[in-house]
Amino acid sequence: MFMTAPKIALLASSLVSAALASVTIQNNDPLIFFHGRWDSSPGTWWAGSGLKLNVVGLSSLTLNLGSHTSSPMAAVGVSVNFQPFFTVNVTQGSNKIPLGTLPKGENTVVRLNVEGWQNNRINLQNIVLNTGAKLLPYVPSKLAFTFIGDSLSAGQFLPLGVDQAWPFLTGEFFKAEHTVIAQPGAALSDIVSFSNQHGLSFEFFRTEDDGYFFTTDHNFTTPWDFSRDHPTPTHIVIHIGANDSAQNISASSFIQTYLAFIKRLRTLFPKQPLFIFTPWGWPNADGSIGQYYPGAYQTIVNTVKSGGDKNIFLVDTTGWVTFADVFPTNQHPNVGGHMKIAANFEKVLTNAGVKPQANWATPIVKV
Predict the structure, then answer these.
(1) Res. 18: pLDDT tops 80
(2) What's the pLDDT at 2?
(3) Of the residues 115, 136, 157, which one is the last residue of a structural domain?
(4) Where are the alpha helices (DSSP H) in the chain?
(5) 191 and 115 assigned to the same domain
(6) What's the structural domain count of the chain?
(7) Do 157 and 99 belong to one domain?
(8) What is the pTM of this model?
(9) In the chain, what's the furthest Cα-to-Cα distance?
(10) Which region is the signal sequence (predicted)?
(11) Domain for residue 328, yes or no?
(12) pLDDT at residue 21, rounded to an integer
């Protein structure tokens, strides 16, 4: 069979186009390493949720996001090759992620997470990479922290949101995987508190954060499948109670709720060390500290230990935060305050035998 010149030209053009075609990664590709909590769309909930990619031959990366993405935009933290996170505002549609200048002949690790406790939904449709790029497995760290809390852990009021909060900083210091399940205004008790319809004793076990109540496209919660926590958390850290106090929950009721919460956690994480923070309180300009539930956290830890669980530890945060470490208008830790809290907790963990990993588990190597 003979081909005419136009047909030959068309075939050649098609072959060139195919060779130059970009690489599309579908949202169900097993080499996408999802972390935090994603619903089935798939879409993120909770500050800090996101994904990680390990790519060889990378020079460009575009996120295509669907209709469940927060409007008008969602702030996303991006880290390339484990360098500091920077913010990219993404929207429904096509979003090119700046990567900077990448070394030739090495793999690239891109980490991406939503920063905010609200407007924090990205609905992944697919990821488009440059021609010749190839997705490789991301190897997670052997250390994996789960942090549970409220605004004091979620990074409320910080310029980079959760990415500047003490839980996130602690995880980065140890080169660990880290998940932050923290909701500003939420109590531990399952009550309405500052527009949150539930407390963490309920919401921790759900896929969605309490923002679900104000959405029109996903106005419900679903049970979280803890088998999706990969790797399984090695350490659990809890700092909560400010909003229970604000809602006038009695100390005795708070203690009972906390004990029941720990009991339920132990059905999921039977042997992991539990670190229970005391409040650092609300620092005032005159140097005084507004406290809540004095002695309650020691009672909680002692009660659990008396029942035979020795893998629970009280973290006494007395003196960690002063008025210089908070925003004066709301008494929440500022950027420096979160850094100070993280440094103090890192010492606690190190003294408890938790050592920072020497290197990230997914190395940057010549390929």
Answers:
(1) no
(2) 41
(3) 136
(4) 5-19, 151-154, 166-173, 200-203, 242-246, 251-268, 296-306, 335-351
(5) no
(6) 2
(7) no
(8) 0.94
(9) 93
(10) 1-21
(11) yes
(12) 82
Convert the pLDDT of each residue in 185-221 to its tens digit: 999 999 999 999 999 999 999 999 999 999 999 999 9
How far is residue 20's CA from residue 67's CA, in Å, rounded to a whole number? 29
Domain CATH code at residue 193? 3.40.50.1110
pLDDT, one tens digit per residue, over 94-153 is 999 999 999 889 999 999 999 999 999 999 999 999 999 999 999 999 999 999 999 999
| pLDDT for 367 | 85
Instruction: State whether residue 281 is helix, strand or coil.
Output: coil
54 lies in the same domain as 181: no
Interatomic CA distance for residues 120 and 44, integer angstroms: 7
- Look at the alpha carbons of 30, 50, 276, 313 in this order and tell me if their dihedral is positive or negative: positive
Domain of 106, CATH number, reads 2.60.120.260
Tell me the C-alpha distance between 53 and 94, whole Å: 18
The residue to which tokens 């945060």 are assigned: 317
Residue listed under structure tokens 């009672």:
299
In terms of C-beta density within 10 A (0-12 exposed, 13-18 middle, 19 or more buried), how is residue 3 classed? Answer: exposed
Distance in angstroms between the alpha carbons of the first and the last residue of the chain? 44
pLDDT of residue 20: 60
- Could you list the residue range(s) of the whole structural domain that residue 33 is in? 23-136
pLDDT value at 231 more than 50: yes
253 shares a domain with 206: yes
